[in-house]
Design brief:
The protein has a two-stranded antiparallel sheet. The protein has 5 helices and 2 strands. By secondary structure, it is an all-alpha fold.
């Protein structure tokens, strides 16, 4: 496997699929409980009250979603993840020429050293094929 393919696999699995899975776990947990059950649960006294309030507010929001809203939120979250990854790869690609910004190395090798392996010619262009090859979640979400 080419080093660019290995980078793509790690990038997609860790920065796309894992992020989305974490969100989906929260959403599933929320949908498996009622607002009353959530509000009556025992709270952890070791958590900062402001942090607890923020967490509770998020969970109450997720609990209140109907199935259509949940699907829409899933699409929105995946879209945000995809756009963030795409923009980060574009920034890393553009920074290769002027050394002013984000750089990416993989296994200690700067991406500029294996950019000739990229079928699309750019890291951010490669993101689309990495999704098809390595993601459990499907295509790029606009």
């Amino acid at each position: 496997m080419k080093i660019s393919d290995k980078l793509g696999k790690e990038f997609i699995i860790k920065l796309r699929d894992e992020n989305f899975r974490n969100f989906k776990n929260q959403l599933n947990k929320a949908q498996e409980t009622t607002l009353e059950e959530f509000q009556n649960r025992t709270k952890n006294p070791n958590i900062d009250p402001e942090l607890q309030k923020t967490r509770d507010s998020k969970m109450e929001f997720l609990i209140g979603l109907n199935s259509e809203q949940s699907v829409q939120l899933e699409q929105l979250i995946l879209s945000i993840i995809d756009n963030t990854n795409f923009l980060m790869l574009r920034e890393a690609e553009e920074s290769q020429t002027d050394n002013q910004g984000i750089g990416i190395t993989f296994n200690g090798i700067p991406t500029s050293e294996f950019s000739q392996e990229l079928l699309s010619g750019t890291l951010f262009g490669e993101y689309f094929s990495w999704l098809e090859t390595h993601s459990e979640l499907g295509r790029f979400e606009h």
